[in-house]
Amino acid sequence: MSGRTQNVNNTRFNAEAAAWDSNPGHIRSSENALKSILHHVPDFTEGKGKDIDVLEIGCGTGLLSFMLAPHVRSLVGVDTAEGMISAFNAKIGALPNPETANLAAVNVLLEDADDVHVQGAAAALATRRGDSRASEHAPHRFDLVVSHLTLHHIPSLPAILETMFQSLKPGGWIALTDFEDFGSDALFFHPKSKREGVERHGIKRDEIEMMIKGTGFENVKVATAFTFSKDVDAEDRLPERNLDFPFLICLGQKA
Ligand SMILES: C[S@@+](CC[C@H](N)C(=O)[O-])C[C@H]1O[C@@H](n2cnc3c(N)ncnc32)[C@H](O)[C@@H]1O
């Protein structure tokens, strides 16, 4: 990512972090993403969710992370905006027993599966749950990688898919949700004031499917996850209006 794009994104998300969870749209879209993940990922449909360790790219304040955590063994979130991670950590601190939480988040641009921050967080969660052989499992690898509403900010999709692939155990899955580039109206998902730092206006169905296959994933499937209705601003000659944005779930398994 160019340093400038990253700075634009970090500045925007640091500023939005404190109020992020008070936007009902943010909560609604994470609830829909959770529903789709639980519906599509075999670990959940086969009742094995509580055995799995999850990595989340672009966890933000943890909306999806805190919804997913009760369904899994552990979750490590990463996010490039320090403000988002502070909000995530404040929510951990507000839990009745923060020291037993099965989730953690780190402020890092993840480009390497062996990243020390991610490895440290995964090891700490393993130790916390009483896994005395935690250090023998290093480097830690995950059973599932999720990412919600973040792919459209990431400049190189092949690069992040490769990092996800390396971060998974054999047999592990990706389940990535983001809005679809369904045509020219996809531009209006972001108001004009938030378009700088947006790398692409949604995910192209055929393109992401090809990239996931090209990374080496098997059992690849890209499906409509849900439709998200959103009021969009008046712009140029177009009035303020409500638009339906399709969201995709992008699935693949590391053999
Ligand atoms: C639209 S927000 C979504 C946050 C969260 N997933 C949610 O749905 O509430 C996008 C998030 O991606 C983060 N982000 C942007 N580029 C990233 C990257 N390369 N790696 C990790 N996080 C990134 C931003 O800091 C921001 O928190």
Automatic annotation (TrEMBL):
Entry-linked InterPro entries: SAM-dependent_MTases_sf
Keywords linked to the UniProt accession: Methyltransferase, Transferase
Family matches, as SUPFAM superfamilies: S-adenosyl-L-methionine-dependent methyltransferases (SSF53335)
GO terms assigned for molecular function: methyltransferase activity
Keyword Transmembrane helix carried by entry: no
One GO BP: methylation
PANTHER family in alphabetical order: PUTATIVE (AFU_ORTHOLOGUE AFUA_2G14390)-RELATED (PTHR43861:SF3), TRANS-ACONITATE 2-METHYLTRANSFERASE-RELATED (PTHR43861)
Descriptive protein name: S-adenosyl-L-methionine-dependent methyltransferase
